[in-house]
Amino acid sequence: MRRRRTLELWDAWQFAATEATLKLRIWSTAPNETKAHAYATYQAALDREEQAARVLAHVAGPPRLKKV
Question: Mean of the pLDDT values across residues 9-38?
Answer without folding.
Answer: 98
